Amino acid sequence: MAAFIRELGEVWSRQKRNWRTVVTRQIFNRFFNELTLQYTNIYITLLGASPVQLGAVNSVMGFAQALISIPLGVIRDRFNIRKIYLFGVSILIFVPLLYAMAPRWEVIGLAIMLSGFGMMVGSCVMICDLSLPDRDRATGRALCEGTGALPTVLAPTVAAVLITVFGGISVHSIRNLYWIQFAIRVILFIYVYRR
């Protein structure tokens, strides 16, 4: 076990700073995504969406991702990957802001569409593919996914505690989670931009 952990540490230290930066962002981003995830459909319903409207608004992300996929491939071939990644991460800042400020459920459709675009444009997969040497690619990707998944185990419990502190399940309480997520995404963008 000690040899395995040592090997993971060696893989981590061999990598370029841009990969380590993206993985660090991924770890925190996944935690704060999970913070709101279990309350999203409840929130949309509390904002007035019927079951059919809820299904329709949740379909928007797939549409957005399909729409951007082919042009994004061309863009990635022709432009600076770091700038493209930063653009995607900057788009994702506005997603929790739209959720937090949404007066009605329809606004969530725009947030979900932006999320679809941002996730595709700001995908860390490109950084992994370009940054990791062949000998570390599988281990590096597993390290990214594994370390990114660990904080998500705690996020639902932390979210439940926060919702309780904020007064129980309500639009106001869930909005507070989105404000927290917004603040963290701004901080994470600054972190990635400066590195």
UniProtKB/TrEMBL annotation:
The keyword Ion transport belongs to this UniProt entry's keyword annotation: no
Keywords carried by this UniProt record: Membrane, Transmembrane, Transmembrane helix
Transmembrane segments: 84-102, 108-128, 149-171, 177-193
GO molecular function: transmembrane transporter activity
Pfam families: MFS_1 (PF07690)
Tagged with keyword Membrane: yes
InterPro entries, alphabetized: MFS, MFS_trans_sf, Sugar_transport-like
Name assigned to this protein: Major facilitator superfamily (MFS) profile domain-containing protein
Organism the protein comes from: marine sediment metagenome
Lineage: unclassified sequences, metagenomes, ecological metagenomes
